[in-house]
Amino acid sequence: MTVTRPLMGEPLPLDLLDTVWMENGSLRDVFDTPGALQGWLAEHEFPVDAPEREVREHLTEARESIRAFLQKHDDGEARLNSVLAHGTRNPRLVDGRPEVVDSVDDPAHLPGWNCAVEFLDLLERKPDRIRKCANHECVLWYLDTTRNGSRRWHSMETCGNRAKAKRFHDRHASEPPK
Description:
- By secondary structure, this protein is of the alpha+beta class.
- Helix content is about 45%, strand content about 15%.
- The protein is elongated.
């Protein structure tokens, strides 16, 4: 089942982070919706070779370790390294062509481990472009792909417009009536 989320299409590790968002003042986790975990896995072409409960547990740990690292929690790096410890990436030649083979200690770790590995790649290539939405009530993350790196909101239509409306209201609320 595919659930419409407020932000989709970000690089894999950020898309994983964005499986949790604010809705009507409460956190919503897409994986709480029946069938949504299988939909997310299929969307990202992950095989489902393990019990769903285990895949969800490991994927959630990967998501929260990435979030902890980005939010600069003391244990963020250790948590991320714990997720990464469950697998290896091995380059090799197969029939004269380069190929990369991922190996994990348990198939249930593959999606979360892969998200953590791709997060490291993102950190290496574009660390200053990984951003949290500037709306302090929003929990969504995105990769700023603007030319000048000035994007502030996960979506101008939602969080950006709310901020503009609030500034307008605050500015005019302090003016004396005419």
